[in-house]
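Bug #77: duplicate submission created two jobs. Keeping one. Sequence:
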Amino acid sequence: MARSPDGAGMLNPRIGALVALALGASVLTGCGGHSGGGTVKGDRSGPAASAGPTGGRPPAPRFDPPRRFAEASAVIDGAPLAIADGVGYHYTDDGLAAADLATGQRRWQVTLPGAERLVTGPMAHDDPPVPGIVTDAQGQAFLVAAYFETVTGTGTQQDAQRTTVVAVDLSGRTRWTAALPADLLPRVVGGIRDDRGAAAVLDAGGTAVLDAGSGGVRWTAKDVRPGAVDGTTIVGVRRPGGGYDPWPSVGLRSTDGAALWTGPTLGSFMLDQPPDLMPAGPGRAILAGGDGYDHVTLLIDTATGRQVGSLPGVLHCVYDAKATDICWAPHVVGNDPELVIGVDAGSGQELWSLPDKASGRVAIDVTAAFHGAVYGSARHGSVVLDARTGADLVPDATVAPTQVVPGYGLRADFDGSPKTTVYPATG
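Kept job's structure:
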């Protein structure tokens, strides 16, 4: 996932299967300036885009990490959120919107060219999209939106689909648009800053790197699905010959896409599908999939591709933006969680695991991890654990947030129209 400058600890509440289709060879260049974006509209019920960080309401105390939360203070009509400086940014069906965390009031919304059903479409239901936040060469943060657009044909020319990428300032002003031929719902992986300047990295059935200033395409690698960005290295998995063949992990140089290393090779047990690849902190990424008949989760060094640690099973993992990776076994909704493990991100050493029969402790359903705290729910309600020890920090928590930033816990809800409930921290 792309991380915001706040370092928000966020879990995608629904992990959809990604369709592994190649990125087209030809690419349309990006256009500079304000190109095709809709008019920025301020919400009549909320502050304008130029208002203060919380629209007049004092921000919540910056408890970091927050452990206890008050009753809900606001509901934002969107989810998931990309967060920067007390503002949440999210997709609408036809564009982007911004809302204050403290009040829930909308700052602005903008229509994106050709955008349709971005949050209510069938693919969005399984894998809810979130805009990326990256920085330009001057260090200014901006949003990157990427989505399918249907281009209506004329005469005998049939309709066609393409990926449209739009850069939007945090004030709602469109910087540039670009177009890529693609057959997969695109995803913003992250941003990079290197000798060539700043760029955004996208997964659109393959790797596409776009200049942050103009939207021009630096390079593409149609056979590599990117999963993490670390410094000037893009970590991905390379498409094999086909079928159930395993996918080798690779590190690509951000300036030109040259291969820096080839690491462990894993499969996914699904036809033409890549193994899971997740960011795991500075210098680290996690690869989870099949190694022959075994299921494994590997921690790898992003500078060399070397395996640093190994865990049994195909686990989903999230970095707490401090020092620890939290991994757990996906389970059927309604069943008890089977396994949760805390791993030191640097050494790959297992720190703790649940369940622990000796102490009578059960595993939890992890919803988020942030700055040394793990959030989730157990049989008797919501809990907060210590990421380094697994000990209960708050055994009687009132909410299990799906996203956490200093001062707030947020819980995304995708039943009906997506929305995010905001809980101010009290400790």
